Each structure stands twice: as C-alpha cells, then as structure tokens.
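Please predict the structure of the following assembly.
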Amino acid sequence: MTDRIREFLEARRRAGRDVGPCLVVDLEVVRDNYTSFAKALPDTRVFYAVKANPAPEVLSLLASLGSCFDTASVVEIEQAMAAGATPDRISFGNTIKKERDIARAYALGVRLFAVDCEAEVEKIARAAPGSKVFCRILCDGTGAEWPLSRKFGCTPDMAPRVLEHAHRLGLSAYGVSFHVGSQQGNPNMWDGALKSASSIFRDLAERGIQLQMVNLGGGFPTRYLKNVPAVKAYGQAIFRALSKHFGNRIPETIIEPGRGMVGNAGVIEAEVVLVSKKSQEDEVRWVYLDIGKFNGLAETTDEMIRYPIRTAADGSATAPCVIAGPSCDSVDVLYEKEPYLLPISLEIGSKVLIEGTGAYTTTYSSVGFNGFPPLESFVI
Ligand SMILES: Cc1ncc(COP(=O)(O)O)c(C=O)c1O
C-alpha cells in the first residue's frame, strides 16, 4: 500500500464516490518493478504479459520504458500497439490460436508466435509465412501457487519434431519456451526446464537447425501473505542454470513477467456487506464482501492465491472467518477450507483493503454477473 494509493482512496471516500469495490494501481510501483527486472536479468528482454493487467496507462508506461509485450489474443496485440509498442516488440504467446487471428496478427506486423504441436505450426505456416516460432514445453508447476501445467506445452522429447516441422514449412525455428508456474516461490525451478531446453537445442543442431532463443516465461512472484525471494535471486538462479546447461553459448533470452510486474502495484478497497453465523453455536463467522470470485478475485479459486486483507481495526482481537463474495452463487466463497483471521470488531460497512491485487483481477471480473458491474479500476 503506497501513500499515493492511500491518499487517492481517502479523496474518493471524502467525495462520497466509494460506492463499490475498486482497484487502484500505482504506476510508480510498476516502474520500480520494471527496473528491478531489467537489473536482475540485464541480458534478457522483458515481454510484459499483458493479460495480468492491460490498463492503457500500465501498457504505455512499460512501452515507454522499453518493454516488449507477450499477448494472448488480437485484442491484446491491439492494446499493446495502442500503447506505443511496434509489432517487432510483440509476441503472440498463446499456443491456442484461431488461424484467422494469426492472420490478423501477421497483418498487424507480428512475426513471433508460440506453438506446442504440429497442427499449430501448420496454421502459422499458412497464415503468417516466414515468421519465427518458439515451442513451449510442459512444466509440472511444482513450487507454484497458480500452476500452469498440463494445458500448455509438449513434452521436451516432442519439441524437436515440432520445431523441425516448422523449419520444413519455411518458418524460422527460433527457440523454446516454458512457464514454471505462476507465483513460483522457488528460483531453482528454472533449472530443470533449462536442462530440457538445452537438450532440444542440441537435438535441433544435429538436424542442422540452430535455435537462438529461450523464453523463460513468467512465474516471478509478488508478495501476498508470505515473503517471497527478491527478483535478484531469480536472476542469479536463472543465470546459474543458463551457464550450467548452455556453457559459454548462452542463447538470447526473454522473460514474460505478469504478476511480478503489477501484482504489488495494486490495492482493492472493498466493503463488508454482511457478518453472520450459520448457527448459534458457530464459532466461525461468515464475512460477505462486495467483491468475490466473479468481480475480481477469481484467483481465490481452490484458495490458491491468499491475499493480505487489511482493516482499520488491525491489531485488535481477531477470530476465524469464512470470507465470501456478494453474488447468489455458492461457488462465490473465497476462503473457507482455511478460515481467515479478521478483527472481531469488523462490521457491516467496514472497509477492507485487499493487497497485491494489481494482477489478474480486473480482467477476470465478469461483465455483470448478478447485476454487479465489472471491477472499477484507477491507475495513478
Ligand atoms: C504465456 C504466458 N506468459 C507469461 C505469463 C505470466 O505469468 P506470471 O503472471 O506468472 O508472470 C502467463 C500467465 O498465464 C502466460 O500464460
């Protein structure tokens, strides 16, 4: 929570505009995060994962700082370009793309695409001839709070075939990518993936194809309730692993931070709508907020991301609570398996601050489930 955000929220309250939950993102924090990534990995290009927070102010700031962009759709490509990024600074990093979207990206000038199978390579060869492709390999997501396993990537032993297929179809077989899982708490998790990447490089070299790039993905964490290692520790661990597996022939590298770039830049202010118990004897109270899974806090699914929640009564006596959202859907419960300690004095109308919410909140918010509007967002 920065002073700038605190002042913004106070002014909003004074003006009586605090009628619903809102996210406030402090651009100064985003700027600091970008600088930390650039320092921790000085030879690596940063491709900000637009999906984490595509607010135009965030994208414009990052574009002006020299960032490139990892995009998941044509809309994200257009958002990055509107913020000032030229197409040579954009990667279409989703492995699942419609051919007409590949063609649209190509028409916009994008020449860098992710693949993880031969069928996707064929789409790119048809719709974006001559482009560079990198093949994503599977990672099991061990050590990550929000794993991205199974759905994306092929096994490392399949990647050479995919890349050779690309080469044969006139594409540039450019490199290998992986994602070690979002909110990855262990900097050493890049080691295994880099080992696989280096063996794919060797295999392709034997087939006469020189790969050039390793996309190290995202996964850099933000601080929620637990401390996380600093970006510097990730930079050091990654450099060690690169040297170990590639020796003195370290390839071009890129990273795609999303959460680590914007997570700690945002705070959501929300309000307690109801405090109740399910029976007289119940020891756990239910605290219902005006924000839930459907208007911004989707990452509480399976209680995977546990946000710090601050209140004006912090420091006073607490009791365990189930925290739930406002909608008429019983899935809309944030923390129940592991009840959350909140002040006993918390009551209807109390404000709560949910920290670390700059990433993966606004865009996860539904357009109007139960009539609740999408999460309001301010960038300061
Ligand atoms: C291809 C790709 N790159 C980067 C990211 C960003 O990951 P993170 O927010 O963990 O940095 C994601 C997240 O889903 C992704 O799918």
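The radius of gyration is 22 Å. The chain has ten helices and 18 strands.
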